[in-house]
Design a protein that fits this description.
The complex is a heterodimer.
Chain A: E1 21-22, E2 24-26, E3 29-31, E4 38-43, E5 48-54, H1 58-76, H2 81-97, H3 99-110, H4 114-135, E6 153-157, H5 163-177, E7 180-184, H6 191-202, E8 210-212, H7 217-225, E9 231-235, H8 238-248, E10 254-258, E11 264-267, H9 273-285, E12 297-301, H10 305-316, H11 337-352, E13 356-358, E14 374-377, H12 384-387, E15 394-400, H13 403-411, E16 418-422, H14 426-435, E17 440-443, E18 462-463, H15 470-473
Parallel strand pairs in A: 1-5, 6-7, 6-9, 7-8, 9-10, 11-12, 11-16, 12-15, 14-15, 16-17
Antiparallel strand pairs in A: 2-3, 4-5, 10-18, 13-14
Chain B: H1 2-6, H2 19-28, H3 34-44, H4 51-63, E1 65-68, H5 76-87, E2 101-104, H6 109-116, E3 122-127, H7 137-149, E4 154-158, H8 161-165, H9 169-183, E5 187-191, H10 194-197, H11 200-212, E6 217-219, H12 231-248, E7 253-255, H13 263-276, E8 289-291, H14 294-307
Parallel strand pairs in B: 1-2, 1-8, 2-3, 3-4, 4-5, 5-6, 6-7
Helix pairs in contact in B: 3-12, 4-13, 4-14, 5-6, 7-9, 11-12, 12-13
The chains are: A alpha/beta, B alpha/beta.
Chain lengths: 478, 319
């Protein structure tokens, strides 16, 4: 037993009021599905059922798209930007006011530690709404012409890793630009989107501007293929993204895709080692590694390999895995049984292919979905764990000798979403950033997000940019 | 005896052979990224220490306090009062642990030595022309020797920041070695005055310089400049003692001093010790708080935990 044993410090669940069942949020009201079923959303840390959620059928999606169209034509489209801004500012403030409630609900439904939902997810959600609220009356100055027009109805499908943050990335710019939306949250994490729907009601957002249709793959397919949708935005796996691109090819719809990644986190021998190790840990173990831009491939210069690995292992032994609502927990639960299975399978393949597997001693709870933080050393570019996205707390460690080799290995992937560079040399950071084929290159940091900064991928990581001024382009007719 | 301890940086004894080797070594230490270090410290500051963990941490923090008075206005009466407080921090609770040490100016050492006799509480004295360190070496050594002769068993010396910032590392090194010799058996705490070194790279280099020169403790500050013991600075120093032990086998203590005024802050430092250097440092032999007002807040929080209610400041002694 440790000398300094931190007593449990659970955040109270009493701030959230989870209803036993939820309908669909269409035209400003919660309604029952007409042709859909129901699915259960569970707490991945305990497998307890949190709520029953409607599964929207094609008819329900059609109702939602019609409501969005009517709101676009009659209310939101003609509304002056400064008035749209007022609603968005109001939503942003309500998110801040109800921040604790949102954070607890996010951790319950997703399994992420409360420290992250409280300190990262929810503050960023509010920040994205504030940021795009500011753009709503300044669109003529965004560089897209003197009077850029919205596209109409946006159909948006988001993933389960940052449920509310991905909603904000989608809804805030769409609404600021004058579009209305039909959004489908992920089937395992719909609850904060439904709470967001309540916030829209509280903000007196005109009916039909935001519609939330819960459900699984079929619902998502109905959203993106609906002929009344003018714009499709998807964040999720490359496989599903490819299917969406095929499904809407030849239509008038505009498309942005934010897909998978296999980012290289590159540590040079002159890096600030202690901070680089923090960055490695944050890069791959933040949000249990359920991050599309996770630094899942560590590239270490051979001359500091031993020092970095020793330091990394010591640091990993300090990671606290367990109850996501405990304020002292660093790593929470894997989001679903299916995802846990995928992480296990790929990890077993890694070991079979000859990489050396290491995890710190760590006690995992009996119930729920858990995976200990894991690193693989002796990984080569040919290993599947160096090529495929694992989307879990699993790091593949490779080495390099020269900057050119680092670039070559970092770019040698079908993906290109993000990369990290750790060095004390400013000139080398710029040299690397010029050559890395990745949408985001972080220098001496990792997994940092800001509403003013565009985010998106190269190659199989997708196309289009979200965030910043660039993020407006996806929702304007330019 | 002294000679072997001063060169105890076993594998590193060659480092101080010349100005060039010392400089090469200190400048070859991995850099510190300021933003990253501050983020790490801020994250550690979010740990929520409650109930049993809090009670344990408060008692440990009390045992780690170097109860300090370093004023021009110090008198024997003031110092005696402080020593009484050190012996029995909470008059209402004999079970309350005593502090680690009392820290005074050299002229007050005889008074404090008499007042602390038989208590087991260490007696620390600042020396070497505290707080500026701007005096000839002979004066500093005499200052140190006088404090030890009068009964101090711990010496808190200041490094010569001017020389350090001028890059004259071997002169700083030689001074620490000389003071260490003048200390005899007394423990040497080396004050880096991190608020004047400014950068974390400097803090890391000064930490290693002091450790190689034979420091038993490295200490952040005198408490006499505006920026004293911050959490990130202490984090960098804890990394230094952790790495120094890994390199040489010798364990060095850390003492943040100045600016730590309440229990919440003290607990953040203990969390940082725990998650940086590790639990081997969670002991008054290896970690101290240089403080005066901190103690009463620790006592108030301790009473709150045992009785369930806050008592006013008038229920704790002002010394």
């Amino acid at each position: 037993m440790a000398l300094f044993e931190y007593a449990p410090a659970p955040e109270s669940r009493s701030v959230v009021d989870i209803k036993p069942s939820y309908g669909l949020f269409i035209n400003g009201e919660f309604v029952d599905p007409t042709d859909g079923g129901a699915l259960k959303s569970i707490n991945p840390a305990s497998e307890e059922v949190l709520a029953e959620v409607a599964e929207a059928g094609a008819g329900d999606v059609d109702r939602a798209v019609r409501a969005a169209r009517a709101a676009y034509e009659k209310v939101w489209g003609p509304m002056p930007g400064r008035d749209r801004a007022k609603y968005l500012f109001r939503i942003a403030r309500l998110i801040q006011e109800r921040g604790r409630e949102l954070a607890v609900l996010e951790s319950l439904d997703n399994g992420k530690p409360i420290r992250e939902s409280r300190d990262v997810d929810i503050p960023l959600v509010a920040a994205y709404f504030f940021y795009y609220a500011g753009w709503a009356d300044k669109l003529p100055y965004a560089g897209f012409g003197s009077d850029p027009r919205p596209l109409g109805v946006a159909g948006q499908v988001i993933p389960w890793n940052f449920p509310l943050l991905m909603l904000a990335w989608k809804i805030a710019p769409a609404l600021a630009a004058g579009n209305t939306v039909v959004l489908k949250p992920a089937e395992t994490t719909p609850l904060t989107a439904l709470l967001f729907a309540e916030i829209c009601q509280q903000a007196e957002l005109p009916a039909g501007v935001v519609n939330i249709v819960t459900g699984a793959g079929d619902t998502g397919r109905a959203v993106v293929t609906h002929p009344g949708v003018d714009k499709v935005a998807f964040t999720g796996s490359t496989e599903v993204g490819r299917g969406i691109a095929k499904a809407i090819a030849g239509t008038r719809k505009k498309l942005t895709l934010e897909l998978g990644g296999k980012a290289a986190n590159i540590v040079f021998d002159d890096a600030p080692i202690d901070q680089a190790v923090e960055g490695i840990v944050n890069g791959i173990f933040f949000n249990q590694g359920h991050v599309c831009c996770a630094g899942s491939r560590l590239l270490v210069q051979e001359s500091v390999y031993d020092a970095v690995l020793e330091s990394l292992k010591r640091r990993m032994a300090r990671l606290r895995v367990g109850d996501p609502l405990d304020k002292n927990i660093d790593i929470g639960a894997i989001n679903s049984a299916a995802q846990l299975e995928r992480i296990r399978t790929l990890s077993e393949i890694g070991a079979q292919e000859g990489a050396e597997r290491w995890s710190p001693p760590c006690e995992l709870p009996d119930r729920g979905f858990w995976f200990a933080p894991t690193i693989f050393t002796g990984v080569s570019q040919a290993h599947r764990i160096a090529r495929e996205e694992i989307f879990g707390p699993v790091l593949s460690v490779l080495t390099f000798r020269t900057p050119a080799e680092a670039v070559e290995k970092a770019n040698n992937t079908p993906y290109g979403l993000s990369a990290g560079v750790w060095t004390d040399k400013g000139s080398r950071i710029l040299w690397m950033a010029d050559r890395l084929r990745a949408g985001v290159v972080w220098a001496n940091t990792f997994n940092k997000f800001d509403p003013t900064s565009p985010f998106g991928g190269y190659k199989e990581s997708g196309y289009g940019r979200e965030g910043g001024r660039h993020g407006l382009e996806a929702y304007l007719d330019v | 005896m002294t000679a072997t301890t001063t060169s105890a940086g076993s594998g590193l004894s060659e480092v101080a052979r010349s100005e060039a080797t010392l400089r090469t070594f200190l400048h070859g230490l991995p850099g510190v990224d300021q933003i990253g270090a501050e983020q790490r410290a801020a994250m550690l500051g979010t740990r929520s220490i409650k109930t049993s963990a809090k009670a344990w941490a408060i008692d440990l923090a009390i045992r780690m306090v170097d109860l300090t008075t370093l004023e021009g206005a110090d008198t024997p009466g003031k110092v005696r009062a402080l020593c009484a407080k050190a012996r029995r921090p909470d008059p209402a609770d004999p079970g309350c642990p005593t502090v680690a040490a009392v820290c005074v100016y050299p002229s007050m050492v005889p008074t404090a030595a008499a007042a602390l006799a038989g208590s087991g509480i260490h007696l620390a004295s600042v020396a070497t022309a505290f707080p500026s360190g701007q005096a000839p070496l002979e004066v500093k050594l005499a200052d140190t020797a006088a404090a030890v002769a009068a009964g101090a068993d711990e010496i808190d010396m200041v490094i010569n920041r001017g020389m350090f910032l001028a890059g004259r590392y071997s002169e700083v090194y030689d001074e620490i070695v000389a003071v260490k010799q003048a200390c005899g058996n007394a423990h040497l705490k080396v004050i880096l005055e991190t608020g004047e070194l400014v950068t974390y790279d400097n803090v890391r280099r000064a930490s290693w310089l002091a450790m190689i020169a034979g420091a038993d403790f490295i200490k952040t500050s005198t408490g006499k400049v505006p920026i004293a013991a911050t959490l990130p600075v202490t984090l960098i120093m804890l990394e230094a003692v952790r790495d120094f032990r890994a390199a040489t086998g010798r364990q060095i203590g850390v003492k943040p001093a100045g600016g730590i005024r309440n229990t919440k802050d003290a607990i953040k430092f203990l969390v940082t010790v725990n998650e940086t250097a590790g639990e081997d440092w969670l002991h008054p032999d290896w970690f101290r708080f240089g403080a005066s007002t901190l103690l009463n807040d620790l006592l108030m929080q301790r009473t709150k935990l045992t009785t369930g209610v806050y008592s006013g400041p008038d229920y704790f002694t002002v010394d």
